[in-house]
């Protein structure tokens, strides 16, 4: 168990080059009327250059509200797609072309159609961590922050929840009067955490609160003092009178926490909580994205219309 300090080491040449890259990014951002968005799981340098840092859907909503022509989304592919769906008139760029999401890739349109045939009386609730194509064939979208509220709002007793089985399990525990049909999908990063690691962390830091994301397995989530989305974990830590926290979600969020609440101490629950896709975007990628307008997210208008429907229904809840 290691306290997060955010300390970085670099030589003078690296630091000077970094400053040049940052200056150039700021220049291009103004020239192209661009906004830079960074997910909480991005590396610290990318979070620091961003105009806004947050979870994926909050960032997409922010991008829709901002008067800009270009959105540089430092995250993974499905996040940039969501931004394009909500802001189709804007150019959306994904700096790291190969930054994908294994969970999003686990469910397809065919999977949804088969589940609908098996359960014709069920509503399909789609986690935002999914492709635009899957969102387009779902009834309503949700985030980890509002998943319980979205499912509670539906008239149907039977709910098909895709693609995250662990988040679906968490919802089922919160709403026992609904029948939740689970899909065999998961976050490859959060699923790696084991319950024994929570026990070991508590033994080492008995006074620290344990905050865990519901994408972890049920046995891990069951050991938390608080379970919630990335945004909810941040909010809990901010409001709590406690001074020490064991964080059970992707490592990148610790940079935000320590930066904004330096009087508190934050520890990563497990060294396994590092998403390789979220770490792909570098400052050089952001610079390249603005210089060459790459890599642009393009979606067919009909797909945007259908995917927007499931996202908009979530907003109405």
Instruction: Report how far apart the termini are.
Output: 40 Å
How many domains? The number is 3
Order of strands across the widest beta sheet? 2-1-3-4
Number of H- or I-type helical stretches = 15
Into which percentage range does the β-strand content fall?
15-25%
CATH level 3 topology of the largest domain: Rossmann fold
Task: Describe what you observe in this structure.
The protein is α/β, with parallel strands linked by helices and 317 residues long. It has helices spanning 12-31, 44-49, 56-65, 77-86, 102-105, 109-118, 132-136, 147-153, 165-174, 195-204, 218-221, 230-239, 253-260, 283-292, 301-316, and strands spanning 34-39, 52-54, 70-74, 91-93, 123-127, 140-142, 158-162, 179-182, 209-212, 226-227, 244-248, 265-268. The relative contact order is 0.17. It starts with 11 loop residues before the first helix and ends with a helix. The chain has 15 helices and twelve strands. Helix 1 (12-31) runs parallel beside helix 14 (283-292), helix 3 (56-65) runs parallel beside helix 4 and helix 4 (77-86) crosses helix 15. It folds into three domains: 12-98 and 278-292, NadA-like (Rossmann fold); 103-186, NadA-like (Rossmann fold, 3-Layer(aba) Sandwich), CATH 3.40.50.10800; 190-268, Rossmann fold, CATH 3.40.50.10800. The strands form three sheets. The chain has a four-stranded parallel sheet with strand order 2-1-3-4, with helices on both faces. A four-stranded parallel sheet has the order 6-5-7-8, with helices on both faces. A four-stranded parallel sheet has the order 10-9-11-12, sandwiched between helices. The model has no long low-confidence stretch (mean pLDDT 94).
